[in-house]
Amino acid sequence: MRILGITIPDNKRLEMALTVLFGIGRSKAHTILTEAGVDFSKTTKDLSTDEENKVRVIVESLKLEADLKREIASNIKRLKDIKSYRGSRHAKKLPARGQRTKTNARTLKGVKKTMGSGKKKDTKK
């Protein structure tokens, strides 16, 4: 089964298989499947064609993948352009939601770079 150009895994349960799409988590997958009237425990290969089409129609009506990524990027760009505090944190690649940065900001800051000890090594004379 392909939705929005992405192959949904055949051997996983549908509620987990739909999370392959960017923008669909477990709760949204549950909402989609209840709206389509499909059992959560079915796998993709067990679906009938009309159930598959119901799920596809609902998923394609949502803003997902490239459209969602573009919207998120434009929101961050807007914050940077108006020079808000959150925008400046995004520009500096630091946490934007009040987390501490002395330690534990490695997701955004990257790998820790150790500085020298301050003690110079003796060179040969």
Protein described:
- Helix 2 packs across helix 3 (49-60) and helix 4 (65-81) packs across helix 5.
- The relative contact order is 0.11.
- The protein starts with a strand and ends in a 16-residue tail after the last helix.
- It contains 6 helices and 2 strands.
- It has a two-stranded antiparallel ribbon.
- It is 44% helix and 3% strand.
- With 125 residues, the protein is mainly alpha-helical.
- The model has no long low-confidence stretch (mean pLDDT 89).
- Strand 1 and strand 2 (6-7) form a beta hairpin.
- It has helices at 14-17, 26-36, 49-60, 65-81, 85-91, 106-109, and strands at 2-3, 6-7.
- It has 2 domains: 2-62, Orthogonal Bundle (Helicase, Ruva Protein, domain 3); 64-97.
